[in-house]
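Shipment paperwork, digital attachment
Item: protein structure file
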Amino acid sequence: MCKTLVIVIGCLIAFTWTIYSAQARPGKRFDAKTQTCRMIADGQLDWESDHWGTGAQKFKQVCKSCHTRDNDKGAPFLYMESYGSKGWNRVFAERRIPCKQDGSWDVLSAEELLLVNDYLYRNANDTYDPNDADSCG
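Attachment content:
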């Protein structure tokens, strides 16, 4: 009886760990613009880089005001999984996109831009790979 209980508990732990690691999300992000490593899975940045945080809200308010499906501005449709993590980092580091050049980003502070980048990086199309989700540069 005791041996069976140990086996069942071991299987439950293994199953739980498999589920948890299959949904791994990045815990840190190297920001090329500021040359810093942002710990996006800890403290305030954990909250701000998730779906309810400032990064998501500013993405919806500012970016999605143009980048909606079938918009009349000619802006491509974008959502958090439009690019991989490295792609989103490149967009914010190089800033050679029309949105930055035409002043659309000027309504965002430097900190808000970092939070939008954190949110998009953390929820990009490749962030759920448990083998490569937590790299920082």
